[in-house]
Specification:
heterodimer; A: about 325 residues; mainly alpha; MetI-like fold; 13 helices; B: D-Maltodextrin-Binding Protein, domain 2; Dipeptide-binding Protein, domain 3; 3 domains; six-stranded mixed beta sheet; globular
Chain lengths: ~325, ~500
Amino acid sequence: MLPFLGRRLLQLIPTLFFVSVIIFGLQQLLPGDPALIMAGEDRDPEVIAQIRAQYRLDQPIPVQYVYWMKGVLSGDLGESMRIKKPVLDLVLEKLPVTAQLAGMAILIALVIGVGAGIVSAVYKDTWLDYGANIFALWGISTPNFWLGILLIFLFSVQLGWLPASGYVRPSEDLRASLASTIMPAFVLGNAIAAVLMRHTRGAMLQVLSSDYVRTARAKGLLERSVVLKHAMRNALTPVITLGALELGTLLSGAVLTEQIFTVPGFGKLIVDAVFNRDYAVVQGVVLVTATAYITLNLLADIAYMLANPRLRS
Amino acid sequence: MKVGRSIAIAAALALSLAGAAQAQTHLRIGLAEDPDVLDPSLARTYVGRIVFASICDKLFDIDEKLNIVPQLALSHEASADGKTVTIKLRPGVKFHDGEPFDAEAAKYSLERHMTMTGSFRKPELGQVDKVEVVDPMTIRLLLKAPFSPLLAQLTDRAGMMVSPKAAKEAGDKFGNKPVCAGPYKFVERVQQDRIVVEKFADYWDKANVHIDKITYLPIVDSTVRLANLRSGGLDLIERPLATDIKTIRDTPKLKLVSAVEIGYQGLTINLSNGPKADTPLAKSAKVRKAFELALDRDALNQVVFNGEFVPGNQWVSPQHPYYQQSVPIPKRDVAKAKALLKEAGVNGPLAIDFMVPNNPETRQVAELIQSMVAEVGFDMKIRVTEFATSLKQSELGEYQAYLIGWSGRTDPDGNIYAFAACKAPQNVSGYCDPGTDEALNKARTLSEPEGRKHMYEIVAKRMVGENEGHIIYLYHRRVLIAHTERLEGYKPMPDGLVRVVGLRLK
């Protein structure tokens, strides 16, 4: 177990280095000049030259990279050119928002997706199954931004039940916080629910036709107990893996949904930073989310090892 | 039992607090973008100025008719040679941290704008040589040369006064918690989410401040911004889309106010910046004249903007005091345009690389221009380009025509000098004409409007009338603001910034 962990941790180093080079390199490919954008409408040459010097944009790219890496290794992700705030502060400010949204979305996805998947497998080829399948097809094919705008018109403009956009911290007002995040969380969760439903249904159908389930039924167990205790547990393993991966994606920020509901999370931060060519912010946020993703992956691997003894040898 | 009682007391207390909180009036303003840093020296965005309008007062302001009126100043006087401007300051003004506003503070603020690393105000105050304290309530600006647009500069961020104590302590982090002398003081900011300000009890004009708290919420998507206004989540939004004007007018509880912008929208032609300028459009004023005669500005306004905007052909709108009536908007004349092209020796369709920043409105304008000039013999190859990229390409001369506007400045100089003077920073076309240059420079030194207007007439005739220039001005937008009926006292300003003094919430 320990050597495995050590090996995996060692692998992290070149992976992260590679990621950092790619982030930095790709960014340089963005057309446009950050100093020109920063200089505002007036574009005074003196101001532009000064910005270039201040943010080392006048240095060769490898030199810029080394400066950035030096900062990162000492815990300094740099400073936003646009708002003059440390990138680390911005990341820490957005992390709880994105985490809350991702958590709620995945919860919604699991409840709807797994629930609908089980029902449609158990009641295969009935109208319940068809209904769940239609729901899944709709969920996969509905664009987030469209569903978002429709929800805003229904629940905010017409009914006036929920705020159209914005974000309230749970520590400020829990109810208002839930009200401000339920729509974006549903939009995100809905798409994932559809995928989860399809996977749950497939896995359940396979398990339900396996020998041990037939044995359980032959023993005279209640159908409910057969489905929920015996079949579901086994069927859920691949579903949970998928859910974990989706959670990782959600944590890197939901660009469109955050933009529409004006939720100040990672997605919005990164889009604004790209359009403003705020390099330090883009680099910092992508590095942090990439690290989070890799770490989640590592944790998932460790969890498999713990769960499945066959993998340990 | 005891526990029960304390719960009851706590509940009663909470209720009374909630009651007090409800009595507070709270204005929620939806912004089209997230402002940049809130430091008057380092700020550069338009939306940032909307927020500054509530927290940082300036030496001067403008009124609805673009007249310059005193704000933290009381009066001003220019010397006969125009090289000295003496400004008397308003007494009894305090900064948000309780520090007094006086000549020393004004000198500090101006010098901070002029010398701070990264200050965007440096070029705006570039003509100021020195700031002197005359007496505790008077300052004197010594200029390198007479510069009539100076006062107009002081109606914007360059005229904003900051608390010297707070600015010295915070250094370049001042923007995280700005301390100025405006009607509202800064409370908190959550990046990309909100900026909260509250009424400043010691404001010099506090009798006219009626709202307790203002929250600015950046909401980029204009549909969502409008939805928030309709659902009651916001009280005022800036820059709704021109295409949403009808929806707003049809909603009974909403009001739409507008003012013609001080800027312009136009088409810049690359005259001599790099090899791409090697085209008859750049070389011949006749070809440019033909291009202009192919345009129908009224139709453009009707088709794309429902006739809500104002067609124009100069760097200020036809309503502006500096508009030159002697250079009117030419009517569309296809026959004459064709004849001019023939005269210039252009046979067959003339292909032009037309760079258009990516946004739905400009794309539509570009397509309409494309179809109008196609009738005459121009083949506009529209190249939709992301905004930041288009700026860079314009600098590099990688375009033949570029659809780009300017947000406008209070003084007409700010709309033309940087674009048309030889080698000026925004002159990405390489236009350089000694006659224009001389008139533009002369206009900067004259203080009386008639003389200045005459100088600008020379420029307008040359650049626009004779088509020697590089910009074909097209139209002026209306600065749109929509608000709910609850809000009273809103006055549309030509710069589009929301003045919060005098506003009330029902």
